[in-house]
């Protein structure tokens, strides 16, 4: 699970950084006054990291913690 979530996070982050480096005109597209595509995608990376953290916490509470309790008792 940790490897999968890490790969998703790495893909999101490096995808954003690659676009930032090589697609500057696209990232500079103004969606509405004060909001560019770059700002929107950057916020998406941040929100995505919180979602991935939530996915891990739910998984750990449902599967990992009960397995550890069974082993320890």
TrEMBL record:
<protein>
    <recommendedName>
        <fullName>DUF485 domain-containing protein</fullName>
    </recommendedName>
</protein>
<keyword id="KW-0812">Transmembrane</keyword>
<keyword id="KW-0472">Membrane</keyword>
<dbReference type="GO" id="GO:0005886">
    <property type="term" value="C:plasma membrane"/>
</dbReference>
<feature type="transmembrane region" description="Helical">
    <location>
        <begin position="35"/>
        <end position="59"/>
    </location>
</feature>
<dbReference type="Pfam" id="PF04341">
    <property type="entry name" value="DUF485"/>
</dbReference>
<dbReference type="InterPro" id="IPR052959">
    <property type="entry name" value="Inner_membrane_assoc"/>
</dbReference>
<feature type="transmembrane region" description="Helical">
    <location>
        <begin position="6"/>
        <end position="23"/>
    </location>
</feature>
<keyword id="KW-1133">Transmembrane helix</keyword>
<dbReference type="InterPro" id="IPR007436">
    <property type="entry name" value="DUF485"/>
</dbReference>
């Amino acid at each position: 699970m940790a490897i999968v979530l890490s790969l998703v996070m790495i893909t999101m982050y490096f995808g954003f950084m690659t676009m930032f480096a090589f697609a500057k005109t696209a990232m500079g597209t103004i969606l509405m006054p004060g909001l560019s595509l770059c700002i929107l995608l950057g916020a998406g990376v941040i929100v995505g990291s919180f979602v991935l953290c939530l996915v891990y916490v739910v998984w750990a509470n449902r599967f990992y913690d009960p397995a550890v309790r069974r082993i320890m008792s």
